[in-house]
Design goal:
single chain; mainly beta; Immunoglobulin-like; 8-stranded mixed β-sheet; 1 helix; 25 strands; 44% strand
């Protein structure tokens, strides 16, 4: 899977989303996100039963995400003191057997502390689950926080291009398909139940991505061991004979379908054909 392009059809793209996960007055656990080179911060939530899922695609060459992982501590004026030293640390549960501890930062104001995790460090924990905490060091003592469970999910691997039975040589004949057609996405290796997949069907006389929206579907529940299928109802295409369809599929990589980050499936997730 190519994750070096910035367009939604091939690799990461981003858009601003206004949710602020900081809650004033609560220490709780740390939280994580990615800060892209554009300066936007994308919060990655932790949701049951998966916890916080951080996709390895972020650490494997995407140009907008380089050393972008942040562990963030929400500092407040009730449980922190100016001059406190705060560090972040985690311990792995699984095969990597590793641990990580950041350099401490000093509390200078009651603003969040961002701890940058280098990509080389994060890659060591691929496929593993870790327990993340922060520790306040004060007067020779240590005050640990609540913990966050974070999984570094292996990168997804597409096994083949998407297809629609009935599309041949760039053409779909409408009349032989009065009951609809089925879009098939071949099995994707390393797909997890926290992932979701979207399909967007647009068409126009001129074709391309600038056409009119005709159908949009999202699969929230995926079977990691099987191909995925979207049923396209006949009403989507029957009235649009002569138009050219641009169909594209994209993925949500972490828990909670983080709205600020989209991940395109590249040329294997795109179909273009004419309706006749």
């Amino acid at each position: 899977m190519n994750n070096t392009a910035a367009g939604v059809t091939d690799g990461f793209s981003e858009r601003h989303f206004g949710t602020n996960p900081l809650r004033s007055g609560l220490t709780g656990a740390p939280f994580v996100g990615c800060e892209s080179q554009s300066g936007l911060f994308h919060f990655i939530p932790g949701l049951d039963p998966w916890g916080c899922v951080v996709p390895m695609e972020v650490f494997t060459g995407a140009p907008i995400f380089v050393d972008s992982l942040r562990v963030v501590v929400a500092v407040n004026d009730r449980e922190f003191q100016i001059g406190d030293q705060v560090r972040v640390q985690w311990a792995a549960f699984g095969g990597s057997g590793g641990n990580y501890q950041s350099q401490p930062q000093s509390v200078q104001s009651f603003m969040p502390l961002h701890f940058v995790v280098p990509d080389d460090t994060a890659r060591q924990f691929e496929g593993d689950r870790v327990e993340v905490i922060f520790v306040i060091e004060r007067s020779g003592g240590a005050i640990p926080s609540a913990s966050l469970l974070m999984t570094f999910a292996p990168a997804l691997i597409q096994t083949g291009p998407v297809s629609i039975e009935g599309v041949s040589e760039g053409v779909l004949e409408i009349d032989p398909h009065p009951d609809g057609v089925v879009l098939t996405i071949p099995r994707i290796e390393n797909l997890r139940t926290n992932n979701a997949i979207e399909m967007l069907w647009i068409s126009s006389a001129n074709g391309g991505q600038g056409g009119a929206w005709r159908d949009y579907q999202r699969k929230l529940t995926v079977n990691p061991d099987s191909p995925l299928k979207f049923r396209i109802e006949p009403s989507v295409y029957q009235k649009h004979r002569g138009e050219t369809v641009h169909l594209r599929c994209s993925l949500f990589l972490g828990s909670g379908m983080v709205p600020g980050i989209g991940y395109g499936m590249g040329h294997r997730g795109i179909l273009e054909f004419k309706l006749i």
